[in-house]
Write a structure and sequence with these properties.
single chain; alpha+beta; 5-stranded mixed sheet; 3 helices; globular
Length: 153
């Protein structure tokens, strides 16, 4: 059976289409490193915790607070669809789970629990290798902020 260039081109195009349509988690690897910083933000003073200096400009330009204190820092290496947990002040717990990787972005599911009851839930898309800071619940005359950075491995 003789194959023509037309047949070979069709096969090649089909193979390229199959490779492009593969789930991007296979391309990104099967683990995600998530670095979490739990921050107390308030307006009771003017202070920038030394552990947050790399975020200082972002925090001050996005949020209205004047004092930022690093309360906790945790680095997690997670497989997709597994859950990592961080204790929060006020008897709360933050759970984070990488759920996918699309177009160079890691999808995270984030939940906050108080007394084993979900009080907050969201999903974020984070550009691979970058970070985002999101606002959280009130705490001690201020609010908790969560800085989340992630990198697919």
């Amino acid at each position: 059976m003789k194959q023509t260039w037309k047949d070979l081109s069709a096969i090649l195009i089909s193979l390229i289409c199959i490779c492009i349509s593969l789930p991007s988690t296979a391309i990104a690897g099967n683990r995600v490193t998530a670095n979490l910083r739990i921050i107390h933000a308030a307006t009771d003073s003017t202070y920038m915790d030394p552990g947050l200096r790399d975020l200082g400009h972002e925090l001050q330009s996005v949020f209205k607070y004047t004092a930022y204190r690093l309360l906790n820092k945790k680095n997690l290496t997670l497989a997709y669809n597994t859950v990592g947990s961080v204790s929060l002040p006020g008897g709360r717990r933050l759970e984070i789970s990488p759920t996918g990787f699309t177009n160079g972005r890691i999808k995270f599911k984030i939940n906050i629990f108080k007394q084993n009851r979900a009080v907050f839930g969201t999903e974020i898309l984070l550009k691979n290798g970058s970070s985002i800071t999101i606002g959280g619940p009130g705490y001690e005359n201020g609010y908790l902020l969560f800085n989340i950075s992630g990198a697919a491995q």
